[in-house]
Design the sequence.
C-alpha cells in the first residue's frame, strides 16, 4: 500500500496477531498519520473544539442569542483543523482528489459510533448540500462523501439556493447572511447533519432552523474538522 | 487478446503521440491571429479555455478545437494523456456528479486541474500560429570564449536545421545561457517557437530578466508554479518542466536544462511531457554537466550528437576534490561530533577568507551539527538550510551577501546556485544520496568567479565509494580535455 498523502510505501510488520486477526489496511504512513489530531479530552460539550471550560465562549454567544438558542443540540467533530488537515481538505475538496477521504474513514467511524450510537438508531443522516453550480465544479459533494464513509444510510432532505463560498466570508458576513437552505416535506425524526468543516457553526444552524420549521425534534451535527 | 496485452505492455515503454490530431481545419473564417497564438500547441481541459460556451462551441463546430480522450484504458491499467501517468496507485475512482457515473480520475496531475475520464482534452487544430520573424532579435553584446563559440555554432546549426537531437556537455560554470543566445536568435529569425525547460522555478525567475534584456522585442513568458501569468502564449517560453503539461506539439526548439537533475531524471512524466511539447520535426537540445548512464551510453553508441565545453568561462580548470578518510566518521556524526581532520584542514586552509559550504546527507544531521561547528570553528554566523526550510531563499541570499560565513546544507544547493568565493566540504561523502552527478555538481560550486577562480573541495568519508572515484575521474577527464582546447 502507498500512503494517500505522501505516496511513500507503507510497510506492515507481520506478527502472529495480524496473521490471525488481519487489521484493515492503513491509508496513511507512520510519518503522516500523527499529523492528524483527533479531537479528544477537554472539548467544548457543544461544538467539540479544544476548550478549558465545558462550554466555549463561542457557544455561550450562540446560546444567549434568542434566535439561535437551542437550534443545534451539539456538534461533534473528528479532527482538529490544523495545517495538515487544511492541506488535505484543500486537495480533497477543491482540487477534487476524492480518494483522500479514505484517510479519515477509520477515526471518523469510531468517533461517530461513540457519539451517536444511541441517537443514530432512529435519526436520519442529512449531508449539507451544495448548489448545483458548485456541485458541477467539484464533481462531488464533500458532505455526502463523509456521510457515505460512516456506513449509515443518509438522505438528501435539503436544497441549497445560493452559491456563495463560506470560506470567502468573514465571521460577521457569515452570521448575518441569509439562510441558503430549503426543505421539502415534513420530518418527525431527529437529524444528524453531516458537513466537512465546522468553523463558526452558522451553516449547520441555518440548516437546523429549516429542519425544525418542518417538525424535526432535535438536530445534531457531525463534521470532519473543527 | 494476445495482441492487446502485448500492445498494452509495449505502450509502457514507448510513449506514442499518434493520438494528437494534426489536421488543420480548412474552413476559411476570419479569425484574430492572437486566438491562434493563444491556443496553438496547447492541450487543455475545458476549464482552462477562457472562452464562454457559445464561442467555444462555435470553434468546435469549425473543427478548430478537437477533443481527445483524456484517460485511456489499456488491458490492465490506465494512462493519463496529459501527464503520462500510468501507475495504478495514482488513479482513483470518483462518483462523478457531472456524468452521474463512477469512473477514474488522475491523481498525479491533479494540482494542475483534475483530469476526469468523462471529459476530453482539447487540442487546437485551427489555423497555425504565425510568429514574428525578426532579423536580429538578440541585442546581447558580450563575447564568447573559443570553446563556448564552438558549442554555440553547433547549437545554432541544430536549431536552424530542425529534426535534430544535440547534447551540450558543459562543465559547471561554463556559461551555458550565453551559448544559447545565437541559436535562439537564429530560430526566432526563422519564425520558430522556442521553449527552455528547467527543473526549478528559481532558475526561471533568474533567467527571465536576462532573456528579456537580450531579446527586447520578442514575446516571452516565464511559467512556474505560482507565476502570475499562466497563459503561456509567447514565442519564447521559459518554464519549469511541469508546466509543459499543457502543451502538445507546440515548439520547434526545445531546450532541456539539466537533463540529469532529480525531477527530470526521477519522474517519467517529465520526459513524457517535454517530448510531447516538441513538434514532430523539432530540435531537442539537452544541457548537462553530469550526464547519466543512459545518455552516456547513447553518446558512446553514436546515437546522440554531443558537443563538449570542458572549460569554465573564466578559463580556469575545475577544482578537483580531495578525498579524506576518517575511520570513525559515522560514530562521530551520530554524536554530533566533528572529525579531527576537518578542524585541521580548516585551520590550514589556503584562503581563510573564503566562505564555507558544508554538504551533509540528511536534514537531521544538518540541524544537529550546526552548534558543534559553531563551537569548534568559533564562528557565530553559521546556519543550516534544507528543502523544507521556509527561509531557504533568504539564507542563500545572506550567504551571497556574505552575511553568513558558513552554510550547512543538504543536496538542495548542489546545482544552479552560484556563490563567488567558497570552499566546499562534504561530510560523509559515502552516503548514497551523493551519487556521481551530485558530487560533481557539488564540486562545481567552488571557484565560480573570475576573481577567485579556484577553491578547495574536500570529501570526508569512511570508505571510498564508486561515486566518489567516478566523480574525481570525470572532473579530471574534463580538465584534461580543457587543456587541449585552449
Sequence:
Amino acid at each position: 500500500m502507498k500512503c494517500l498523502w505522501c505516496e511513500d510505501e507503507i510497510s506492515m510488520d507481520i506478527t502472529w496477531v495480524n496473521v490471525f486477526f488481519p487489521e484493515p489496511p492503513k491509508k496513511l504512513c507512520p510519518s503522516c498519520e500523527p499529523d492528524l489530531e483527533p479531537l479528544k479530552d477537554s472539548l467544548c460539550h457543544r461544538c467539540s473544539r479544544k476548550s478549558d471550560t465545558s462550554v466555549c465562549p463561542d457557544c455561550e454567544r450562540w446560546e444567549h442569542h434568542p434566535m439561535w438558542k437551542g437550534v443545534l443540540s451539539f456538534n461533534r467533530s473528528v479532527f482538529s483543523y490544523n495545517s495538515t488537515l487544511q492541506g488535505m481538505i484543500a486537495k480533497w475538496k477543491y482540487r477534487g482528489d476524492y480518494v483522500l477521504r479514505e484517510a479519515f474513514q477509520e477515526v471518523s467511524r469510531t468517533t461517530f459510533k461513540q457519539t451517536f450510537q444511541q441517537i443514530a438508531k432512529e435519526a436520519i443522516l442529512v449531508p449539507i448540500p451544495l448548489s448545483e453550480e458548485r456541485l458541477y465544479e467539484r464533481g462531488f459533494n464533500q458532505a455526502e462523501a463523509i456521510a457515505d464513509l460512516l456506513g449509515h444510510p443518509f438522505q438528501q432532505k435539503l436544497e441549497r439556493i445560493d452559491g456563495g463560498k463560506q470560506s470567502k466570508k468573514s465571521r460577521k458576513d457569515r452570521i448575518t447572511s441569509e439562510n441558503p437552505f430549503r426543505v421539502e416535506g415534513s420530518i418527525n425524526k431527529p437529524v444528524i447533519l453531516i458537513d466537512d468543516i465546522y468553523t463558526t457553526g452558522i451553516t449547520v444552524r441555518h440548516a437546523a432552523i429549516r429542519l425544525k420549521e418542518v417538525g424535526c425534534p432535535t438536530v445534531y451535527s457531525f463534521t470532519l474538522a473543527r | 487478446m494476445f495482441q492487446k496485452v502485448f500492445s498494452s505492455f509495449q505502450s509502457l515503454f514507448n510513449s506514442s503521440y499518434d493520438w494528437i490530431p494534426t489536421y488543420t481545419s480548412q474552413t476559411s473564417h476570419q479569425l484574430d491571429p492572437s486566438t491562434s497564438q493563444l491556443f496553438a500547441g496547447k492541450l487543455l481541459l475545458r476549464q482552462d479555455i477562457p472562452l464562454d460556451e457559445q464561442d467555444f462551441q462555435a470553434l468546435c463546430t469549425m473543427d478548430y478545437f478537437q477533443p481527445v480522450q483524456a484517460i485511456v484504458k489499456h488491458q490492465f491499467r490506465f494512462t493519463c494523456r496529459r501527464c503520462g501517468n500510468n501507475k495504478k496507485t495514482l488513479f482513483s475512482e470518483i462518483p462523478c456528479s457531472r456524468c452521474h457515473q463512477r469512473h477514474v480520475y488522475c491523481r498525479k496531475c491533479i494540482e494542475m486541474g483534475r483530469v476526469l475520464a468523462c471529459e476530453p482534452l482539447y487540442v487546437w487544430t485551427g489555423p497555425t500560429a504565425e510568429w514574428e520573424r525578426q532579423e536580429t532579435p538578440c541585442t546581447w553584446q558580450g563575447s564568447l570564449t573559443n570553446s563556448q563559440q564552438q558549442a554555440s555554432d553547433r547549437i545554432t546549426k541544430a536549431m536552424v536545421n530542425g529534426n535534430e537531437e544535440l547534447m551540450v556537455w558543459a562543465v559547471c560554470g561554463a556559461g551555458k545561457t550565453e551559448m544559447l543566445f545565437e541559436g535562439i536568435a537564429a530560430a526566432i529569425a526563422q519564425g520558430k517557437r522556442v521553449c527552455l525547460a528547467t527543473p526549478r522555478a528559481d532558475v526561471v525567475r533568474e533567467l527571465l530578466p536576462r532573456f528579456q534584456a537580450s531579446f527586447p522585442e520578442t514575446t516571452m513568458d516565464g511559467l512556474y508554479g505560482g507565476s502570475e501569468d499562466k497563459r503561456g502564449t509567447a514565442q519564447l517560453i521559459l518554464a519549469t518542466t511541469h508546466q509543459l503539461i499543457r502543451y502538445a506539439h507546440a515548439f520547434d526548439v526545445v531546450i532541456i536544462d539539466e537533463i540529469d537533475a532529480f525531477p527530470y531524471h526521477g519522474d517519467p512524466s517529465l520526459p513524457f511531457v517535454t517530448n510531447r511539447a516538441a513538434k514532430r520535426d523539432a530540435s531537442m537540445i539537452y544541457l548537462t554537466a553530469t550526464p547519466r548512464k543512459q545518455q552516456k551510453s547513447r553518446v558512446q553508441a553514436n546515437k546522440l550528437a554531443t558537443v563538449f565545453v570542458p572549460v569554465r568561462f573564466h578559463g580556469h580548470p575545475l577544482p578537483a576534490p580531495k578525498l579524506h578518510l576518517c575511520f570513525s566518521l559515522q560514530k562521530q556524526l551520530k554524536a554530533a561530533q566533528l572529525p579531527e581532520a576537518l578542524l585541521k584542514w580548516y585551520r590550514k586552509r589556503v584562503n581563510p577568507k573564503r566562505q564555507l559550504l558544508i554538504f551533509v546527507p540528511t536534514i537531521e544531521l544538518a540541524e544537529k551539527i550546526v552548534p558543534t561547528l559553531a563551537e569548534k570553528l568559533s564562528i557565530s554566523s553559521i546556519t543550516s538550510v534544507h528543502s523544507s526550510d521556509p527561509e531557504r531563499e533568504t539564507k542563500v541570499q545572506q550567504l551571497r551577501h556574505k552575511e553568513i560565513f558558513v552554510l550547512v546544507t543538504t543536496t538542495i544547493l548542489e546545482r544552479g546556485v552560484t556563490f563567488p568565493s567558497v570552499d566546499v566540504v562534504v561530510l560523509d561523502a559515502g552516503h548514497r544520496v551523493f551519487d556521481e552527478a551530485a558530487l560533481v555538481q557539488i564540486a562545481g560550486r567552488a571557484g565560480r568567479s573570475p576573481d577567485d577562480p579556484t577553491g578547495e573541495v574536500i570529501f570526508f568519508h569512511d570508505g571510498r565509494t564508486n561515486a566518489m572515484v567516478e566523480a574525481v575521474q570525470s572532473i579530471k577527464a574534463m580538465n584534461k580535455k580543457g587543456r587541449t582546447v585552449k
Observations:
- Strands of chain A lie at 75-79, 124-127, 158-160, 181-183, 191-197, 219-225.
